[in-house]
Amino acid sequence: MEAWNQSIAATVAGDAGPGPAAAGSSGPGSAGSTATETPGFTTAGGANGKSRGGSGGVPGRGGDPAATAPTGRRHPDWLKVRLAQGPNYNRLKRLLRGMSLHTVCEEARCPNIYECFENLTATFMILGNICTRACRFCAVTTGRPTELDWAEPERVADAVERLGLQHVVVTSVARDDLRDGGAIIFAETVRAIRRRCPDTAVEVLIPDFNGDWDALQVVLDAEPDILNHNVETVRRLSDKVRSRATYDRSLALLAESKRRAPHIKTKSGLMLGLGETWDEILETLRDLRAHQVDIVTIGQYLRPTRDPIHLPVEKYYHPDEFAELKRIGLALGFAHVESGPLVRSSYHAHEQADRARARQGGAVPAAVDATVAAAAGAGETSASGPAVIGVAGGRATGAVGGAAGA
């Protein structure tokens, strides 16, 4: 399964909000911590913002990735998120249950669910909640799917209309049991949203459809505003981390999408902390840019459970390292780079799209706050966490990215 929001076991602290809590280090040179992570919902702390394995100089260039230490240490302070179940959180939960809809926010155990749900945002996960793949970073259930609901597209569109969203993200589990991988349900969902909410931007986070470009074309024919497919990790680790998917097939899908529909923005994401080197991260960014990807997201991998199928965290990257990767990504020519410890595929997806338009000279919708447009070329890093399905109530909000099968 591909959207790496699934790979999250949230770190919870009642006294600190999302984002870097205490970064006592002096800059990018004092990069990440070696990982001895505790999966699941735990109290963050212990790192005190100091290096536990990085070296001086440019972040992440300390040679080989840090080795995994015995489990038990708490997550670094900058991975704290606030657990707060406010009125909007409970309202959205009731709405989703009442309409028999799934979200990747819940299925993938995203750490930003409290923030996003309170902002009335979520990423819809279609085609059921059982995936045919068993990726080693993913919290979504693997098994034999039993669900193919042709009425689901209209229910998703109804929810989008009720919430008044201006940007919505739709993802799915992998459905290798279906001949088209579920492409027609993606397409019908996009069209249903267009009929009910013609001014709403629609982003899809899709699986690789096993390299079936006819299935890809079915989705492109529905004219989503953004087509997202995550490469997830660096080339060397791809076979270890992902089930059935391949690094080159993911790159090919992104390139094919741009070739067939050059007006549709493409987007991809990768997670860090699985044992990659700094040079491999940069190689992946160069590969994505060479395949004409417009938007990229970069965040920290967190182990969903202690189950042996889920890979341990090899390193915690410091917020300064994510800031450096954002700077490098923009210099490579990406229209937008969202980079931070808690960033996931759909983190501030609406703002990502607007900033990308601003950098490429396109018009920024009036509903977006002026600071969002101004930030397009500022290179600032948001480390607060992944969120974005849309803009509700006339203000930018966020919702987590999808569970699309690798």
From TrEMBL:
Which major enzyme category is it?
A: transferase
Catalytic reactions of this protein: [[Fe-S] cluster scaffold protein carrying a second [4Fe-4S](2+) cluster] + N(6)-octanoyl-L-lysyl-[protein] + 2 oxidized [2Fe-2S]-[ferredoxin] + 2 S-adenosyl-L-methionine + 4 H(+) = [[Fe-S] cluster scaffold protein] + N(6)-[(R)-dihydrolipoyl]-L-lysyl-[protein] + 4 Fe(3+) + 2 hydrogen sulfide + 2 5'-deoxyadenosine + 2 L-methionine + 2 reduced [2Fe-2S]-[ferredoxin]
Chain intervals with Gly residues compositional bias: 46-63
The entry's cellular-component GO terms read:
cytoplasm
How is the cofactor bound, as the UniProt entry phrases it? Binds 2 [4Fe-4S] clusters per subunit. One cluster is coordinated with 3 cysteines and an exchangeable S-adenosyl-L-methionine.
Q: Which GO terms describe its biological process?
A: protein lipoylation
Q: Where is this region: Disordered?
A: 12-78
Binding positions for [4Fe-4S] cluster 1 per the UniProt entry: C105, C110, C116, S346
The EC designation for this entry is 2.8.1.8
Q: Where is the composition biased (Low complexity)?
A: 12-25
Domain of life from the UniProt record: Bacteria
What pathway annotation does it carry?
Answer: Protein modification; protein lipoylation via endogenous pathway; protein N(6)-(lipoyl)lysine from octanoyl-[acyl-carrier-protein]: step 2/2
What SUPFAM superfamilies does the record tag this protein with? Radical SAM enzymes
Q: Where does [4Fe-4S] cluster 2 bind?
A: C131, C135, C138
For this protein, the record's Pfam families field holds: LIAS_N, Radical_SAM
The entry lists its GO molecular-function terms as: 4 iron, 4 sulfur cluster binding; lipoate synthase activity; metal ion binding
Query: What keywords is this UniProt entry annotated with?
Result: 4Fe-4S, Cytoplasm, Iron, Iron-sulfur, Metal-binding, S-adenosyl-L-methionine, Transferase
Gene3D superfamilies associated with the record? Aldolase class I
Q: Which cofactor does it need?
A: [4Fe-4S] cluster
Q: Which HAMAP family match?
A: Lipoyl_synth
* Record NCBIfam families: lipA (TIGR00510), PRK05481.1 (NF004019), PRK12928.1 (NF009544)
The UniProt family comment states: Belongs to the radical SAM superfamily. Lipoyl synthase family.
Q: What is this protein called?
A: Lipoyl synthase
According to its UniProt entry, this protein's organism is Thermaerobacter marianensis (strain ATCC 700841 / DSM 12885 / JCM 10246 / 7p75a)
Identify the gene encoding this protein.
lipA
